[in-house]
Design brief:
This protein is 58% helix and 4% strand. A two-stranded parallel ribbon has the order 1-4. It has a two-stranded antiparallel sheet with strand order 2-3. The protein folds into two domains: 171 residues, no CATH class; 188 residues. The longest helix is centred in the last third of the chain and has 32 residues. The radius of gyration is 22 Å and the shape is globular. Helix 6 packs antiparallel against helix 7, helix 7 crosses helix 12 and helix 8 runs parallel beside helix 11. It is mostly helical and 362 residues long.
Length: 362
Amino acid sequence: MSDDTQMVEITDTESDLVTQLLAGIDEAITSVAEIDPTYANKTKVQKLLYLAIDEFDIPITYSWYLAGAVVPDRSISPSSLDVYTDQPTSPSEPSIAGSADESVGEESSETSPIEPIMFRDETNESDPDPPADDLESYVSKGELVAFYRDVLPEVWHQETMRFLQNFYQEEAPEEYRLLYIESTHLRTHLAELIDTVEIYLDDGDPTREIDSLRESIELSISDLHHYIRADDQLRETFEVVVLGTDLIEDTLLKLERLQPDDFTDEHLSLLRDLQDFFYYYVWKHPCLRISYQTATGPQADELRTERLAEFESFKERVIERRDELRAELASAGLRPAPGDYASPEDQELTETLRDLSSQYLE
């Protein structure tokens, strides 16, 4: 599926500043002996850019979106670094299974979560004091490289989901901090579920059973619901989020009732589709609103306009994809029958426990 949303435009000045920041990352990487450039990934490159933008007040547009703070330029990736392009074959990314840094993130998708960028030559004529395109107007080269030398070891050596959790804890806007952290928990549990089914298909012995993973996923979903409902701006996305997470919970209910010998490659493929559905549709819905609220920098108004336009029509896209995936799951035997659901008494107990959990979190 192609993404037909309007493309954000950033100025040549911003592009020049990004290029100079990437050069600073390059120099820092080559000067820190324990840093292996082949372990670069898109998430970490984007977050390194943000850390400098925030630290030195550099006028580059960004917002908080699917994986947190991000400059809306899909071309930014490890291949943007000279030290990376000089490398031969890159080893496996030290990330959660199935994520490939942002396979449930920013790197690839039917609907790419970071829209492509179009550069324009003109500056903002309405700005009497446009930003300088020389990075040294904001930070010296030596100071920038020293900054990156300091933060690189901690960023580089963390598994991506662990890195994101720590990054959100330290950097996320307070009103969204717990929501972003919980999103990583849910993504991690969904990846573990896929791992478990894949191990069963290979006649292996997984470290966690389906029932344990189902419990963790349902608790994460409950917490995610709580944080969305607690925010005045995000509350309007709650209905759509529930439509999506209900599909995940229904699938888990049926999956738990199957014997491992009944698992198929089709089941595994559909679980990966479900993982992508959560990230690119369910989670994206509130993230469009978050991006609108947090857009910062020279092109913030343009970014907010785009996010709002996509948000206003995105509910229908979520429902359409939900319906398609639900039909595929039913065809593969992963939709529960009426008798598979808990009794009213059990459902009432579950809701009580969720309410108590929400009260505790408050």
